[in-house]
Design brief:
globular, alpha/beta, 8 strands, 8-stranded mixed sheet
Length: 201
């Protein structure tokens, strides 16, 4: 395993995230989906819970999932309290993720690429099963040109493979980024697919 993506790395990374802005893809899907009005969202790979807190603020109930043991305390601190209404938090690494509760919105920001090729198909199947009719899906996937490809046991996709994952969904946004840029661990080449899709009703 690349030491940048060890459990120790993620603990440091997540602890440093609480003050950052809500990611663009999350803002976009929240705007498209409209007020949460008590509907159920899932944040897969929630980290410190920045997007979890944004979903709660938009009126969603949120089930936040991450493999870092510190997740519950981090997310509850970011979300504004131990007893935040509508929030549930689970510590489940991708290696153990087999099922998710039914959801009207599922967000996975820069998390799914860190599922190993052995785990990814099962995790993706769990995500697809969780989506109710009319549900929104917003995910970042890594492409084969990403500089992390070959350095960590993650899942890196061609554009055709990323598009195939959306079979049966109505794709609203599909952006491809293939350029150098900054990251938490220093400059890198990003190859990312930003996808928003919706389950037909």
């Amino acid at each position: 395993m690349n030491p940048l993506h060890s459990p120790e790395h993620w603990a440091v990374y997540n602890a440093a995230q609480s003050g950052r802005d809500v990611r663009e893809l999350c803002r976009e899907v929240v705007a498209l989906a409209g007020p949460g009005a008590g509907r159920q969202a899932i944040d897969v790979g929630c980290g410190a819970g920045v997007e979890t807190a944004a979903l709660l603020t938009a009126g969603w109930r949120v089930h936040a999932v991450d493999g870092d043991p510190a997740t519950p305390s981090l997310v509850r601190a970011t979300a504004g309290g131990e007893e935040r209404d509508g929030l549930s938090v689970a510590v489940v690494p991708f290696a153990d993720l087999t099922t998710l509760p039914p959801a009207d919105l599922l967000y996975a920001g820069y998390s799914l690429p860190y599922a190993s090729p052995d785990d990814f198909p099962r995790v993706w199947a769990a995500i697809r099963r969780a989506l109710r009719p009319g549900a929104w899906l917003a995910v970042n996937l890594f492409g084969v040109h990403d500089s992390f490809a070959g350095t960590t046991d993650g899942t890196f996709l061609t554009r055709a493979e990323a598009e195939a994952l959306m079979d049966g969904l109505d794709v609203v946004t599909f952006r491809e980024e293939d350029e150098d840029g900054p990251s938490f661990s220093g400059p890198k080449h990003w190859h990312v697919f930003d996808v928003i899709a919706r389950v037909p009703r």
